[in-house]
């Protein structure tokens, strides 16, 4: 559905959300494959540690907060001046705050939506003109299988990811005819600082390195939706096809919540 990526050698990737978890593992694997990678996140120290030992021509460190448009614009201008453009914008920045109706926190909800949803929209005024001017390249957005349908403890997280799924689908309709790739990345449970907040058994839990491998394989194959691990995510795909009465019953039964 998207142009296939035959090689990562020399490909210019701006990875936003590179400091921990899937982002850090993806950055490590991209650098090992010969891509030129611009690393962005709030923690400059963690980005520097990721870049250690990599030739300066292959990596750039661009610390920023994705919720701050001015910081993004400055980093983008610096990157384009140095590399002449970006072949792949990969947005992995995001947060997770477990929340249910009896513990709703309006301020925490606002902050999570600002990070997960508005943060992505802050990148679009930079990425979309650049990609269309180039006439090639791609945009990858990390959402989550939690965006498929409502799930316990995902009172704000789930809707934020559902918004990104809809956004990626709509962007694909606009950009695919122009030869520009759009990649929707929907992970299941990955062992990261975010999922460490969960107090329940997470089925089919995988490591960040496994997640990064699946992500890059999906990008190379030109998939629109990249989801992993499939032994878990395909069950959720099935559940979202069910009528509400059966869906709600099964979710309560499987989660005990």
Automatic annotation (TrEMBL):
<dbReference type="Pfam" id="PF00106">
    <property type="entry name" value="adh_short"/>
</dbReference>
<dbReference type="InterPro" id="IPR002347">
    <property type="entry name" value="SDR_fam"/>
</dbReference>
<dbReference type="GO" id="GO:0016491">
    <property type="term" value="F:oxidoreductase activity"/>
</dbReference>
<protein>
    <submittedName>
        <fullName>SDR family NAD(P)-dependent oxidoreductase</fullName>
    </submittedName>
</protein>
<comment type="similarity">
    <text>Belongs to the short-chain dehydrogenases/reductases (SDR) family.</text>
</comment>
<dbReference type="InterPro" id="IPR036291">
    <property type="entry name" value="NAD(P)-bd_dom_sf"/>
</dbReference>
<keyword id="KW-0560">Oxidoreductase</keyword>
<dbReference type="GO" id="GO:0016020">
    <property type="term" value="C:membrane"/>
</dbReference>
């Amino acid at each position: 559905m998207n142009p296939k990526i035959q090689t990562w050698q020399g490909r210019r990737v701006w990875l936003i959300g590179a400091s921990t978890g899937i982002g850090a593992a993806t950055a490590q694997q991209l650098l090992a494959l010969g891509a030129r990678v611009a690393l962005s996140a709030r923690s400059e120290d963690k980005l520097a540690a990721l870049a250690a030992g990599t030739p300066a021509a292959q990596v750039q460190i661009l610390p920023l907060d994705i919720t701050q448009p001015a910081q993004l614009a400055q980093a983008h201008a610096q990157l384009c001046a140095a590399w002449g453009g970006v072949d792949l914008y990969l947005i992995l920045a995001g947060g997770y705050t477990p929340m249910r109706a009896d513990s709703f926190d309006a301020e925490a909800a606002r902050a999570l939506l600002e990070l997960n949803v508005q943060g992505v929209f802050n990148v679009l005024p930079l990425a979309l003109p650049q990609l269309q001017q180039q006439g090639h390249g791609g945009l990858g957005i990390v959402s989550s299988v939690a965006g498929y349908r409502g799930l316990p403890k995902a009172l704000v997280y789930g809707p934020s990811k559902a918004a990104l799924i809809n956004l990626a689908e709509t962007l694909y309709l606009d950009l695919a005819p122009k030869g520009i790739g759009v990649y929707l990345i929907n992970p299941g449970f990955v062992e990261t600082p975010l999922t460490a907040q969960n107090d329940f058994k997470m089925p089919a839990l995988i490591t960040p390195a496994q997640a990064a491998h699946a992500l890059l394989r999906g990008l190379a194959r030109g998939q629109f939706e990249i989801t992993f691990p499939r032994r878990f995510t395909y069950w959720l795909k099935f559940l979202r096809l069910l009528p509400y009465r059966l869906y709600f019953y099964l979710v309560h039964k499987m989660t005990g919540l």
